[in-house]
């Protein structure tokens, strides 16, 4: 499948139709083929990140949102661990602290927007304030409904100042989530990741899908697009995300700065 066709399928324009998307979609790839494609994408991403870091004229912000066990952490490990960590800033957003709650809900987010030359990653984000806040009733509808406008304006401001924004919803099926929850309970190295509250959120699956649908539809813009990536098969997910990131880094078109004049005549002494 061509890059253009894949991105068209993943990118959201209007209603994301989450229920109609196959969370186990592989786009015709076999597993071994996907591994090879992913290696090629990563080779390109490594070079593009080096240029972005040297150029320092723009930045890339990756927003990752998903239901529990969709693979946010494993996505970060797979796709970003191969990059230069000096140029990557990863921020997980959990339950707001007392200080954060004393400010507007975007206060804790803006501070972590990536500087020029950097790739920033939000593991959960400001979207929690139109997702969990809505589903759990932490704020009335008249409050969270206004936030779609806030978010669009906030992201547009970042884009206008040179931050390219990519928003990715990892689309995991309810069946695959069950399988991964059971694995967490059975494996000592993963059991620590499970919390009883995960089942409470699972019971509200349909409400969360409604909230995600509204959030994605109302905030996917030309300068801050949403992509819905199938997340049941990690090897297919990784190729999709790597291609999305390569596309946006190529759009930035970073360049190595011109070297100082006269370097051709310099020799390094013994």
UniProtKB/TrEMBL annotation:
One of its GO terms (biological process) is polyphosphate metabolic process. Residues 34-253 form the Polyphosphate kinase-2-related domain. The keyword Transferase applies. It holds the Pfam family PPK2. The keyword Thylakoid does not apply. GO terms for molecular function: polyphosphate kinase activity. Gene3D superfamilies: P-loop containing nucleotide triphosphate hydrolases. Keywords: Kinase, Transferase. InterPro entries: P-loop_NTPase, Polyphosphate_phosphotransfera, PPK2-rel_1, PPK2-related. Signal peptide: none annotated. NCBIfam families: PPK2_rel_1. This is Polyphosphate kinase-2-related domain-containing protein. It comes from Ilumatobacter coccineus (strain NBRC 103263 / KCTC 29153 / YM16-304).
């Amino acid at each position: 499948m061509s890059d253009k066709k894949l991105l068209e399928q993943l990118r959201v324009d209007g209603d994301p139709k989450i229920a109609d998307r196959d969370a186990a979609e592989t786009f015709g790839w076999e597993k071994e083929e996907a591994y090879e494609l992913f290696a090629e994408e990563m080779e390109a991403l490594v070079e593009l990140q080096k240029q972005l870091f040297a150029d320092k004229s723009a930045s890339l912000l990756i927003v990752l949102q998903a239901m529990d066990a969709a693979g946010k952490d494993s996505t970060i490990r797979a796709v970003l661990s191969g990059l230069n960590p000096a140029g990557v800033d990863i921020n997980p957003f959990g339950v707001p602290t007392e200080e954060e709650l004393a400010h507007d809900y975007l206060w804790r987010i803006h501070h972590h927007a990536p500087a020029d030359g950097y790739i920033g990653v939000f593991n959960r984000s400001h979207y929690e304030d139109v997702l969990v806040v809505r589903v759990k009733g932490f704020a009335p509808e008249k409050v969270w409904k206004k936030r779609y406008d806030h978010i669009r304006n906030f992201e547009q401001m970042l884009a206008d100042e040179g931050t390219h924004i990519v928003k990715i919803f990892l689309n995991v099926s309810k069946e695959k989530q069950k399988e991964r929850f059971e694995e967490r309970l059975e494996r000592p190295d993963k059991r620590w990741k499970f919390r009883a509250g995960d089942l409470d959120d699972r019971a509200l699956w349909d409400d969360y899908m409604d909230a995600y649908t509204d959030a994605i539809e109302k905030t996917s813009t030309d300068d801050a697009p949403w992509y819905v990536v199938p997340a049941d098969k990690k090897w297919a997910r990784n190729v999709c995300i790597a291609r999305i990131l390569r596309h946006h880094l190529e759009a930035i078109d970073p360049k190595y700065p011109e070297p100082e004049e006269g370097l051709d005549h310099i020799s390094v002494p013994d």
